[in-house]
Structure formats: structure tokens, C-alpha cells
From TrEMBL:
The keyword Glycoprotein does not apply. It catalyses: a CDP-1,2-diacyl-sn-glycerol + L-serine = a 1,2-diacyl-sn-glycero-3-phospho-L-serine + CMP + H(+). It comes from Halalkalibacter akibai (strain ATCC 43226 / DSM 21942 / CIP 109018 / JCM 9157 / 1139). This is CDP-diacylglycerol--serine O-phosphatidyltransferase. Its EC number is 2.7.8.8. The lineage of its organism: Bacteria, Bacillati, Bacillota, Bacilli, Bacillales.
Length: 226
């Protein structure tokens, strides 16, 4: 029973480790691999909360751990990725600007953690850091197709949208698993990696995570139908 209660936290720690690995890959110049690791972190992040509810393992520790993992995987890692792929050319100024992203993200997470549970049933206040970090990862993954001005505008917009008062639908009432659409994006990215011929240098984690996540989504969908 005690092991069962710790399963959601293991997924959260896996999310955090993906963020750490993403920073390492970005520092070594393997930017597409770093972006894919952030997307894998999104998959794990979408699973830990649901597993906690399924196993009745919700806890204050899990909530705090989730926030700490999110700030690394979807705050620090994407900001390093954007710096190494684009902002590096501006020197110290580029590093300072890239560092703003996790600051806005940390503020957004702190505000979310102290908000009333009822206020987040149907909508989020501001763009979730998970979505913002995922968007930056996708921009990097398809960097050669995205003009630099678009990257700058999106980076700036996401920073302010995270701490804005804009209400973002949570999609919890939609009869699909939370973040279910991410699998479509993820598979597209995986196919893109294969097409570009970089799959040989990417950790085999990508080939393990994808089928497991598909099976997880299928299970949730069938369960909800019943």
C-alpha cells in the first residue's frame, strides 16, 4: 500500500528528471533532443495527478513536489533551450531575458498553489506553465520553420500570459483525458525526429514513453466511456 501511494510521486520525479536531462542536452547542443524531453515531461505531468486521484494518494507533498518539478521542466529547461538556440547572440542581455521565463512561471505556480480549489475547476487563471514550456519546446523543435521575430513575440507573450488574469478553459469537462491532444503533437514530433535522422542519437526513452502514454490514454478513455 505504501508503494502504491508513492507511484504518483515517482512520475513527478520522472518529470523533474526529464527537465534536468533537457538542460544537459541543450548545453551539449542537442536542442531537438532537449525539446523532446520537455514534451515527455508534459506526458508524465499529465499522468501524476490522475494517478494520485485513482490511487487515492493525493497529498500536500505531491502538490509541492509537482510545482518544484514544473518550474524546472517547464520553466528553467525551456528558457535554457531558447537561450542556446536564439538569445545567445545577444550575450549577457540574452541570458538575462531568457531568465525571465522561469521567474514568471514560478510566480504563476505560487499563485495557483494558494488559490481556492473551486476557482480552478473549470478554468485556469493565466496560461499554465506546462503549456507555456511545451510551446517553447515545440518552437525549438521546428526552429528552422519559425522566424526569429515569431520566437521573440511568443516568448514575451507567454511570460506575461502566465501571470495575467486571463481565464483559460481547463477542458476538464471534455470527454478526453487531460492533455490528451499532446499525444498527437508528440507523435508528430517523433516522426519528425525520425525523418531528420536524429533518432539514432536520442535516448530510447522516447520509444518507451510513447506506447506507454498511448496505453494510458486509451485506458482513461475506455474507463470514462463505461
Amino acid at each position: 500500500m505504501r508503494f502504491t501511494k508513492s507511484i504518483p510521486n515517482m512520475f513527478t520525479l520522472g518529470n523533474l528528471y526529464c527537465g534536468f536531462l533537457s538542460i544537459g542536452y541543450a548545453a551539449n547542443g542537442q536542442y531537438k533532443n532537449a525539446a523532446i524531453l520537455i514534451l515527455i515531461g508534459m506526458m508524465l505531468d499529465s499522468m501524476d495527478g490522475r494517478l494520485a486521484r485513482m490511487l487515492k494518494a493525493d497529498s500536500a507533498l505531491g502538490k509541492e513536489l509537482d510545482s518544484l518539478a514544473d518550474i524546472v521542466t517547464f520553466g528553467v529547461a525551456p528558457s535554457f533551450l531558447i537561450y542556446y538556440t536564439y538569445f545567445y547572440q545577444f550575450g549577457l542581455l540574452g541570458l538575462l531575458v531568457a531568465g525571465l521565463f522561469p521567474l514568471f512561471g514560478a510566480y504563476r505556480l505560487a499563485r495557483f498553489n494558494i488559490s481556492s480549489p473551486k476557482s480552478s475547476l473549470n478554468y485556469f487563471i493565466g496560461v499554465p506553465i506546462t503549456a507555456a514550456g511545451g510551446i517553447l519546446a515545440l518552437i525549438t523543435l521546428f526552429g528552422e520553420l519559425v522566424p526569429n521575430i515569431i520566437t521573440t513575440v511568443l516568448f514575451t507573450a507567454l511570460c506575461f500570459l502566465m501571470v495575467s488574469k486571463v481565464r483559460i478553459p481547463s477542458l476538464k469537462d471534455v470527454p478526453l483525458p487531460k492533455y490528451g491532444t499532446i499525444i498527437t503533437i508528440f507523435l508528430g514530433c517523433a516522426l519528425y525526429m525520425v525523418y531528420r535522422g536524429t533518432y539514432g542519437t536520442f535516448p530510447y526513452l522516447i520509444y518507451i514513453a510513447t506506447p506507454l502514454y498511448i496505453a494510458y490514454l486509451a485506458y482513461l478513455f475506455v474507463k470514462r466511456k463505461k
